[in-house]
Amino acid sequence: MIIKFNNMRLAITIITLIIFSSCQHDLEKPSWEIDVTSPLIHTKIDINNILIDSNISIGNKPDSSIILIYNYPISKIELEEELRIEEQFYYKSKLDSLNLVDVSTSYKMTLNELFASQGWPCLNGLTIPIPPINNIAGDTVSVNANEYFETMDLISGIIEVKIYNGLPFDITDVNLILRNVVNNNIIISTTFPIIPSYTTESNTIQISNMLIDANMIAEIQNINIPGTGLDSVVINCADSLVATLIVKDLVASEATAYWPEQDIFTSFSEQFFNIQPAELTEFKIKSGWMNINATSTLEDTMTLEYNIPSFTNNNIPFASSLSLNPATNGNLSILSRYFDLSNHILDLTGEKNRKNGDTINTIYTELTGKIDSTGELVTLNLEDSITSTLSLNITPEYFKGFLGTDTINFGPEEETVDFFSSIISGSFALNNSTLKLNINNYIGAEVDVIINEITAINSENNITKTLQGKIVNSNIFIDNATESNNIITPSNSDITIDDKSSNLKELIEIMPDKFIASVTIITNPSGNKKEGFLYYDQTVDLNITYELPLSFISDELTLSNTSEINFDNNIEDGNFKLIIQNYFPIEANIKLYLIDKGGFIFDSLLTQETVKAGIINNNGIVTSPTETIINIYRENINNFNNAKNIMTVVSFTTLPSQNKIKIYDDYKLELTIVGDFNYLIE
Predict the structure, then answer these.
(1) CATH number listed for the domain at residues 404-549
(2) pTM for this entry
(3) Domain 103-258: which topology?
(4) Exposed/middle/buried for 323, CB within 10 Å: 0-12, 13-18, 19+?
(5) CB atoms within 10 A of CB 183
(6) Alpha-helical runs (H) found in 64-118
(7) Top-level class of domain 41-53+554-681
(8) Which tens digits make up the pLDDT trace of 498-552?
(9) Taking residues 618-638, what's their average pLDDT?
(10) Are 384 and 298 in contact (CB under 8 A)?
């Protein structure tokens, strides 16, 4: 039975048969062989086969002929490497001072002890006048300061001596000394001319540049009693002299002591950023870090407080408190910490409110070293030192200030384009192509832009062409951008390059798949100093627009198109017809290839067939297509069953004619494959 019907009827029939067969359960599934004449594949090749690249669009000239418009960003200059700042600041501090805790000790001499030193009995309760007595020597008393220190090399200090006279009579010419036990060196010697009965007198003695041990001896070397005359006093043997020694405001160059909590050094400094020729007042950090390394010779735990008002995040200045372990056995104590500085604002004007401050490129830091009261005996020395290094590795999001006259180089950078990727062979010649160069300056400074190189590359044929003309290596001046409410308005320049002013036509006709661009930007080329800005992601954009009228001469200009074969592999036998309609005003050579699931060509349906050009009017415009029908006979249809896709290859040749052919947007070449075949339905 021979049945001829269209695709819709075939689909309905097949579905019906499938449904019917699915209702069979225990019976054997039926199968049929039918003869079918039906379109199998329909494809077309038009201007869109060239528009592989998303940067290409279509425009029309006044006569409706096509212009290919290709937009290509030559460069968007990002400044991560250009503006990455790596800086290191070094601090070394010795101890400003070593302050020891105040020492206070007291001892007393009773009236009984005073009389006994003279060999006199003390008659308690006796009422008698006291005669004059001179040159009375008191006992020595141990003064032990081991709970405060072991030894100290004193720079300065104060010893306050207080003597309370609890005796019933005045005393005069009271002399007291304080000396070290180890070497008997006198620390102080002080005299009180008179200490009236039941009163306290005090002397303050400045001490400096001496070694003091924790074990000392206090001694009253002399006491004179002027006597009471005819007045009698009551003798109470428990009445006493009380001497109090207060050692305070001690500053040592070295000491082994129980140190109190204290600041041992403070450093205020301004550090200069090496970012000339720019003179900057502020920048925001896009990303980056700061590493703090510190070393110490102190044999005590210390705290380093870093305050850097120049760094702020959400208006909060940077501050960090770091603990540094004690140095031991002559080895340095080492500290290292990393800090993320992303989104920090860096003020480069130095110390806030500094008098006559006009600082640029400068950060202000405060560093304080502290020790805690650990309750441990520790030796410290003013020669002990702390070194600190701040290492910065940051990428600014923006700069503010005078940017200086600087040179920024971009490229050479390679960019791949798909402009001609569908053209697999052949050549063509274009006419009247133009290149428009658009430069947008987002920098808050005047710039000169120099196009060093634009090179087109056809990597398959190993052909290169480099743009030549006045535009190359010329300084293109562009005014500074402006900023208002954090919105940047760029300045721009538009430059048109055509075939007359350059070799642009040569660059396009090699059908490049790559471009290489190299650009130089010079900021503030005139040297005028004025406040400006520079943002990381908004610098200078360079874009080119090619306008290519599709009016050309071609020599075997070859295009390809691949279509999917959408039917089951159940073709038993048959023949095929290829119906071609050519709307181009150019003869075309057609080839057809079968492609398997792996993407490999494994057979050809048509080795080559010439198709006549479309029918044109007096103006050379196609008014109707030519139709060509080609029979494709196959002895072995299995190859078609194994095909996943079919590739159409079309080549156009205008030669020997030297007239350039215009292409219009309705020009196309349509191919339809119709099968007259035996189809197995299972």
Answers:
(1) 2.60.120
(2) 0.57
(3) Jelly Rolls (2.60.120)
(4) exposed
(5) 8
(6) 80-83, 111-116
(7) mainly beta
(8) 778 888 878 877 878 888 888 888 888 887 777 888 887 788 888 777 666 655 5
(9) 73
(10) yes
